[in-house]
């Protein structure tokens, strides 16, 4: 048995059959108003 993985199926893969998708950002960063109370809490602890 070889230590190298079998890449024969990967070499045959046809990228043109993939569907196009639009990536949407799902995890937005919190606003400053949300961060500030948490910062104050951490500093007072």
TrEMBL record:
Domain of life: Eukaryota
The protein's name: Thymosin beta-15A
Organism, scientific name: Castor canadensis (American beaver)
């Amino acid at each position: 048995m070889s230590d190298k993985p079998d890449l024969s199926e990967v070499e045959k893969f046809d990228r043109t059959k993939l569907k196009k998708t639009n990536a949407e950002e799902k995890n937005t960063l919190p606003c400053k108003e949300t961060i500030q109370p948490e910062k104050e809490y951490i500093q007072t602890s």
